[in-house]
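Quick one - inputs below.
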Amino acid sequence: MASEKLLDVDPLLERLQQFADARDWQRFHTPKNLVLALTGEVGELAEIFQWKTDAEAVALHQNPAEFEHLGEEIADVLLYLVRLAQVSGIDLEHAVADKLLKNAKKYPAA
Amino acid sequence: MASEKLLDVDPLLERLQQFADARDWQRFHTPKNLVLALTGEVGELAEIFQWKTDAEAVALHQNPAEFEHLGEEIADVLLYLVRLAQVSGIDLEHAVADKLLKNAKKYPAA
Amino acid sequence: MASEKLLDVDPLLERLQQFADARDWQRFHTPKNLVLALTGEVGELAEIFQWKTDAEAVALHQNPAEFEHLGEEIADVLLYLVRLAQVSGIDLEHAVADKLLKNAKKYPAA
Amino acid sequence: MASEKLLDVDPLLERLQQFADARDWQRFHTPKNLVLALTGEVGELAEIFQWKTDAEAVALHQNPAEFEHLGEEIADVLLYLVRLAQVSGIDLEHAVADKLLKNAKKYPAA
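Output:
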């Protein structure tokens, strides 16, 4: 990693905390609840693709409504995932950098 | 959103593309396959919490091995999600900012 | 297992086959698509419980509308799972009996 | 439905109750925990197919080890699903029959 930062989620973390605080949602945002919410959103993502062929899945961007819907569902998954990291005390940037190093060792390039 | 950027994933996107290219993994990284892989990783995340009480889930950081494992699984979910956005042509930063605006309208603060 | 049958899904299998045949759905019911559909339904199941406390989850039957919804989502998961077994050639009754034997060995009663 | 029973899970329900009782597992088998466990098993099912083409997924039965593994994962999903129905008070046979009737109305055969 050194000097390069692979991703920066700090402003998003701050925003999510404010958002939850302003709505008194901390009591709902337990780790188990957030994993269930994440599962719900991944389910909605899966529904987008469930009856599509691979070719139709790749061409999804040609349908503006479906493409916008896909972006929303991906965003929903990310938001719950980042919030889960936050309430669990996981440093997401560090965790991702670590995992990429492990993956690079586990799967060396040919 | 204006001048503030809520998250920055550009360096990660570049790294993921290089990683896949160097291993000739593009042919595996179809949208449907990535949703299945994401589902697999969310399953591993769920397994961490499945038999824990809410109190045990909140105290998970007290167990260094479990805490590291949690960080890895959260990272795995994020990596497949970012890669899914990438191969699908979704601008993740934009999608997240959009979704937060929609959420703010849908759930106004008290 | 011997003479006892732990579960009987034969009439359901026949019904599912007829249902898919009558709608020309065989081409959609590939193993991968059915796993995605199953993921979608498990997501809907997770959504039912995501913001509930354990006490609220246990008391869900007191709300007739939510209780009916829970039954529907559990049924949806089962229907896609049985269909996945069917198109994959898995003998579900045998697989379940086998797994119970393995579980009994893996987790001996105290 | 009338006189026909689409599926029979009564012996399995009895066995699952005995199994949990003998291991004092009732306290772990809350609805939320069982949904998380179900998510974990669906994740393992998804992993089986994640990098396979549709053709490879359909031909999976040609690999005895993978085919056995598929049967185990499908069984695991079914076991947690049936247990979830049990602890939630859902009559699974009735719920499935109901859902099929609804599906038949929603998707009339051509």
